[in-house]
Amino acid sequence: MTAPDEHPLTGPGLDYGPANDADGTRVVRAGLPADEPYEPPLPGPVFAAHYHLPDDAALDGYVYGRDANPTWSRLERALAELETPGDPDTEVISFSSGMGAISAVLLSRLRPGDVAVLPADGYNLLAALRTRLEEHGVRVRTAPTAADAQLAELSGAKLLWLETPCNPSLDVCDIARLADAAHAEGALVAVDNTLATPLGQRPLHLGADLSVASGTKGLTGHGDVLLGYVACRDPELAGSVRAWRKTVGAIPGPMETWLAHRSLATLELRARRQAGNALALAEALTARPEVRDVRHPGLPGDPAHATAVRQMTRYGCLVSFTLPDRAHAERFLAALRLVGQATSFGGVRSTAERRARWGGDEVPEGFIRLSAGVEDAADLVTDVRHALDVAAGG
C-alpha cells in the first residue's frame, strides 16, 4: 500500500505536482483557466473590438481590441508554460504570423548604426527583412549556422539572430556557446525555434534572451492557422515587442489564437510521432545510391547530431536530401501518394517540395525538403521508396 505522502509513480521524497509534469501532460492543461462548474475547459474565442469601460475603470485590463484579448491571453500563458516550465516571469506576445513576430523583434530593437548578425542560411524571408533593416541604417552581417560561424561576426553587435535547426539545410548551432559570446559583447540573442518547438528545444533555458517562432508550423500542426509569438523573461524587452505589435497592428485574430490553443493538447503526441517518422525516412533515404546529402539532426552520422544531442530533446519533422537534378526531383514528387506538395512544414499530413523553385535558398535544383506527418512510418517509407523507384526509371 502506498504511504500517504508517497506518490505511486514518483516515490517518497520526490516532488509531486504541476511543476514536475511531463510535456505530454503539460500541453494538455497549458493555459487553461481554473475549472468552473458547467463551463468548458477551454472557453471559446472572444470577439471584441472594444470593452466596457466605466469612468473609474482601471486601464490595465482589457481596454481595446488592438491591445489585448482574453483568448490571446490564455494562449500566451500556455506558451509561456511550455517555453519555460515553472518560471512565472516569462512573457509571451502573440502575433498574426511568424514574420510578424520576427519583424517585431528586429525592428523594435535595432536603430541606425546598430550591428545585427543574422544567419546566412535562415528562413528565406529573412533576406527581405535584411534589406529593410539596411534601408533603415542597420549594419547587417551574416554567417552560416554550421560550426557556430556567427561567432566571428559578433564584435560590436547589438543583436544576434540564430535559427537552429536552420531551414532548409537543417544545420545546428550551439545556442549556449553563442549566447555567452554575444552577451560578452553586450548583444541580445534571439532564437528562431520554429522547427524544434518548445518541446524539442528551450532557447531561454540555453541562454537566449528571446525565443521566437511561427505557430503556423508544428506548434499548431493542422495547416489551418497563421500565427507567431515571442517569448522572453525581461519585462522591458517584452514591453518593447508588445508596443511594436500595437503600433503596427500585427495582432492575431481570436479564432486563430483559439485554434492554436486547442491544438496544443496534441503537440507532444504529434511532435513525437513526426520526429520518429522523420528519422525512419532519413534512414531509408541514406540507403539509396541516387540520394545525396541526407540531413536530419537525429541521424547519428549527421554533421549536426553531436550539437543537437546536447540541446534538443526531439529532432523535428524535417528531412532534406538531394536528387540528381530538377527533372529527377519533379518525377519523385509527382510519384508520391501519401506525401503532398506544399511549402509549409510541421503538419499532420506529410509534405515535400523542391526548394529551389522559390529562389533565395542556396540549394541544388534537386534539393528536397520533406516534412514528416503523423501517418504510419512503414507506409511513409514505402511511399517514398516507391516514388524513388519511379523517379529513377525516368
UniProtKB/TrEMBL annotation:
Question: InterPro entries attached here?
Answer: Cys/Met-Metab_PyrdxlP-dep_enz, PyrdxlP-dep_Trfase, PyrdxlP-dep_Trfase_major, PyrdxlP-dep_Trfase_small
GO BP, sorted A to Z: cysteine biosynthetic process via cystathionine; transsulfuration
The residue range of the signal peptide is none
Q: Which residues are reported to carry the modification N6-(pyridoxal phosphate)lysine?
A: 217
Region (Disordered) location = 1-25
Q: Which UniProt keywords apply?
A: Lyase, Pyridoxal phosphate
* Cofactor(s) needed: pyridoxal 5'-phosphate
Per the record, its GO cellular-component terms are: cytoplasm
List, in alphabetical order, the Gene Ontology terms for molecular function in this entry: cystathionine gamma-lyase activity; pyridoxal phosphate binding
Identify one Pfam family in the record: Cys_Met_Meta_PP
Family to which this protein belongs? Belongs to the trans-sulfuration enzymes family.
Annotated protein name in UniProt: Putative cystathionine gamma-lyase
Per the UniProt record, the lineage of the source organism begins with: Bacteria, Bacillati, Actinomycetota, Actinomycetes, Kitasatosporales
